[in-house]
Design brief:
This protein is an alpha/beta fold. The protein has 17 helices and eleven strands. The protein has helices at residues 14-24, 31-37, 44-53, 66-73, 77-100, 134-144, 149-157, 162-168, 179-203, 221-237, 270-274, 276-284, 328-342, 344-359, 364-370, 372-377, 379-385, and strands at 2-8, 27-30, 107-111, 126-131, 171-174, 243-247, 261-267, 295-297, 303-305, 307-310, 318-324. A hairpin with a 5-residue loop joins strand 8 and strand 9 (303-305). The longest helix has 25 residues, at 179-203. 32% of the residues are buried. The model has no long low-confidence stretch (mean pLDDT 92).
Amino acid sequence: MLRVGLTGGIGSGKSTVAKLLAELGAVVVDADVVAREVVEPGMPALTEIRERFGDVVLTADGELDRPALGRVVFTDPSALADLEGITHPAIWKRTAELMSAVPTNTVVVHDMPLIVEKHMGADYHLVVVVGVAEEERLARLVRDRDMPTEDAQARIDAQADDEDRMAAADIWLDNNGTREHLEAEVRRLWAERLEPFNENLIHGIRARRPDALTLSSHRAEWSAEAARLIARLQRALGDRAVSVDHIGSTAVPGLVAKDVIDLQIGVRSLSDADAPEFVEALQRSGFPRVPDSTRDNGKDGTEWPKRFHGSADPGRVAHIHVREVDGPGYRWALDFRDWLRTDAEAREEYAALKMDLLAQMITTDDYTDAKEPWFDSVHERVTGHSPG
């Protein structure tokens, strides 16, 4: 089951995107609907709210009077905390029930306004943010929802800004244009990323780049993409992962690279990485094991053991190297990255090698093998640079 977190600022059109995804086959769990459901008459949460805040927050029919409750809690932080202590457990319990009822081969979309504000991105395989310029959202709220300008601006100001949303977004859906444009973008997202990702997830298939070698100039977004993947790996593994780091060329500012994020998980022992619960946790999170990749060519004439996982996301190819934290392969990956980060001459030398191999029109597999002699030749420079 592919879990997609869908969010966006008020007035962005998030609900429209949710409806379009539902029409394409996704099961949508609407956080606002769940929040209303758990405080309906007869529900335990409403009883607790009445006990805490009194009859003043209920209507004559015994339903929750939201404006009245708002007047009580939004000027009193302790009252708001009490309310959240009542409603949040009920909301998450009901959300879990709804998601567990979804067939395992289905894309489930969690329509959740506060994914960014609550730092929930690691809970999902992907986060989709519907983006609209603030001035356009303000105009929509005033025009379409008949909100006073001051109230609309206050609602916008209370939410995350676009910089934080972009950092959290695996997919940014631009909704500044027409409804037709948005529909086309959602259909493309479904066909090119969500459906293939879900199929890969179901069958344990990793996404791969084409065999033809291509190199990209350094991209600033690689760092943010790596950070999101690291958060998901850490969430999946907990303390079974001693460390998770961004390594490889995409971790070196200014260096040309394949558009592949390399990450390294440090474990106490490879037996931990071979435990079924470790492998299954990564598989569920979108990182299937690649069973035929179990070692690196060591720079000391030996083979350095490791385990290897890939990303099932066709929109973000990633390589996950699992190594023992006290092993030579683990240390070399970090030392090599840090050497390139701090030594401009080394970066230029490595970039020149990459471009020379690109000119030879070799495959990506041959590219990996062709770099090994250079790695061997710089081993002492790398280890001599290391403070350890």
